[in-house]
Amino acid sequence: MASQGSKNTYIEAQRERAAFFESAAFNTLVEAFNSHASQRGDICQERLKYADVYDEEYAFTAAEFGKVCDALFNALAEGVRHVGGASPVFELDYKGLTFGLCIGQGSSYDCKLARQL
User: Fold this and answer.
1) DSSP per position, 29-84
2) Counts for the chain of helices (H) and strands (E), in that order
3) Half-sphere exposure of 63 (CA within 13 A, CB side)
4) Do β-strands 89-94 and 81-82 pair in parallel, antiparallel, or remain unpaired?
5) Among 50, 66, 89, 99, which one has the highest count of C-beta atoms within 10 angstroms of its own C-beta?
6) Separation between Cα atoms, residue 53 and residue 44, nearest integer Å
7) Residue 102: CB atoms within 10 Å
8) How many CA atoms within 13 Å lie on the side-chain side of 75?
9) Per-residue pLDDT tens digits for 72-88
10) What are residue 2's phi and psi, to 5 degrees?
């Protein structure tokens, strides 16, 4: 059974995500993601974590990317689509971007331009 302290930590994290969603800082980062995806292609959280190894530059950090994705998937849970067949892979669309979440032995987010139908 979870302790009261861990329950409070979870609740506080959910509140922080809700407060961050669509804040000025949140919107600035989403604009940076859109710019990156438009000019340089998809964003992969795992690759972003090792940008220095790949000699890549980003206008945002892996932590900022994860924070935005956490807030998005928390706020827009009703719009999340399961796209992974038997795998736990999920997507949601937001402001011209498709954000993905893959869950395995860990979890990782990605982001790409939304497909135009």
Assistant:
1) HHHHHHHHHHHH--EEHHHHHTTTTTT---SS-HHHHHHHHHHHHHHTGGG-EE-S
2) 4, 5
3) 0
4) antiparallel
5) 99
6) 14
7) 19
8) 18
9) 999 999 999 999 888 89
10) -70, 145
